[in-house]
Amino acid sequence: MATSKLESASAGTEVLVTVASNDSVVDVGAPLTALQGLTSGHSVGKVATPHFDESRTREEFRALKRHLMTRFAPKAEGEANEPRTILLTSASPQEGKTTVTLGLAMSFMFERDWRVVLIDADMRSPELSRRSNLSEELGLLDYLDDDTLEVKDVVYPTNVDGVLIVPAGKPRIDAPELITTDRMTQLLKAIHAENQRSIVLIDSGSILACSETVSLAHHAAHILFVVSKGQTKKSDINEGIKLLHRQAGGVDESRVALVLNRTDHSQSPVRYAPR
Amino acid sequence: MWLYRWFLVMVSVISFLIIAGVAVSLPKQYDAWSEVYVDKQVVMAAATQDVSLGGASTTPASVMINPKVLLNDNKLQVTLNKISPETANLSPMQMTNAVSQFRKSITISPIDDDGFIQFHVKDVDPVRAARVAQELTSQFIGMSLNRTQNDLGQTTRFLDGQIETYKGLLADSQQQLANYRQAHPGLILPGGIGGPVAGGEDSVVTIAAPSAGPAAAPAPVMPRTFPEDGRIAALEGQLAEMLTRYTDQHPDVLNTRRELAIQLRSRAASAAAAVTLPAAPTVTAAPIQRMTQVVRRGGGRAAIPADIIAEWGTLLGNDAVLRADYQNLINKQQAARMSEAILGSGKRFEIIRPATVPLVSFMPPRSWLVGGALVVALIIGCAVTFVRAAVSGVLVSPRELEEEFDLPVAATVSWEPAWQTGQVAKVDPRFIPPFLRPRLAYNSNSSTVRLVGNDASS
Known about the structure:
The complex is a heterodimer. By secondary structure, chain A is α/β, with parallel strands linked by helices. Chain A has 10 helices and 7 strands. Chain A is 34% helix and 15% strand. Chain B has 3 domains: 2-160 and 346-366, Bacterial polysaccharide co-polymerase-like; 192-334, no CATH class; 413-458, no CATH class. Chain B is built from 13 helices and 5 strands. A 4-stranded antiparallel β-sheet of chain B has the order 2-3-1-4. Classes of the chains: A alpha/beta, B alpha+beta. Chains A and B meet through helix 2, helix 3, helix 4, helix 5 and strand 6 of A and helix 12, strand 5 and helix 13 of B. Strand 7 of chain A pairs parallel with strand 5 (409-414) of chain B, so a sheet runs across the interface.
């Protein structure tokens, strides 16, 4: 019952129905060959996505994707961060980071030969792991804490071809310190080394609530700052950006971009998209 | 503002309901009014101008009261009791409130120079409004007349008393003159002086009348004239007229002044020459001059000592002053009587428009009130929403974000109602009707692979 990537992408809801009709995500299919180098073939995560039948939503995430892809220049000599490592954060919780992460992942899924690795780095509220039913699996913190674990032990394929997930792992009190270790750098390097066309999306916690987000920002070439319309206060955004600027390198428009979430249709750049 | 559209709608609807409810529940009010014309420039004023009580530029007496006097508590309470007798049983507190409300319903238009005064009364009962307006009009006229009559009465009584007093003083002065002359036979009375002061009022009035005989009244007081007076008056008028057009150094002005100075010197010379001639003395100077003539001529009699002559002159002077004051009092008495006569004619107060029962309420129709309430409610809603949006400090547009933080907005993500997030119970596909299966199958399996809405749950 496995569906092809193209079919999944274009069919939208249909692929979900097809997958669901098996009533077991494990039966979606064997780990895809393209991912076998990175995954161990154990569990398969379930990607819960925005409704991509909404052409407006699709176009909005496509615009976001294009914004990022124009900045995916090859890594220059001496450049610290991989340009395809993207951190998604916000000023405060409940602003839609995970939703934007998933939507962006689905949008990248449409790109041929690209692979998306989602890392759940929100230690306070591992929503990505929860949504993909991987809360109980080994994850990022386990990898960082246990040197015996390999990258493929914490990377999980999903029912969507080309999308991998690294769950948060077991909660630890020293999670912020673990994030700053070299293992985190090794993890990202391993992911990018395995496939030169990998895009890593790090779903982090809120920058004003989680100190590890600043540490994660050091690994990211691009930062998407999610702002919830009508909810996020100016002062919080200002404080968050200042925090990034002080502790995570320069904040300029080549590195940081804002994503205004929960807008209404009148503010969407996609005005006349067919439904 | 669009973000708070539902808040705006809510505030506007609530405001509209409140305002419209209050506006519609307001009872219809009626405005009854009357207008009074107060003639301040009465015709007889001209006749009394020279003998006015207050001077030449004022009318003989005060015309009216200030209409605002009608609005004091006591008068309003009387009016209220008269219009609504049941208010007499109110407690002091209730009466205070009732009077306060009553006062608010009355408007007296400003008094301008034209003399028109309007009394407006607003009430839910048109008949009562008309009655109150009529009552206020009547009170205004009545109080004005009463006060004027009282003032004139007091003035008249005062003048009468003064006249009586002066009459006595004048009689005493005559008696002194008679006694002094009897003691000094060489003294003579100047013409006109020494006439009996009659006890009757009529004889006193004839003092100023030129036609009165010397036996009944003193001789008329005539100013002394000279041939140059006419020319001097003409020159003075000419000079005054010239000074309105020319400067002091204008040749015509200088010539006129020169000629005027010549005429004045000529009149002074005439006056000096007239000292030795018998002329009609003034009221104050004539007796003394006459006495001087008598003394200079010797009178054909024995010489009179100078101190006697001086005292005699003093007596004559006092008598002249008393007569002048007496005449002034008589004039004022005449003015007061003329004012009383004018007041009695009732022409000063004219009711231009009597208060009538208004047939139409001055309030706008209910539909207008509702429309106005709608407009006001929308304004209130917009204002409250704007304030809330300004106070909340949240960002609502990409442009606002970019301008605020100088960072690009890579994308906007719309809120989609189709993004479902809740768990949906599984349904066995066998129990789903065929025509619903695709959709329900999707829904029923959403617990396995479900759509994730933009619920910002992360």
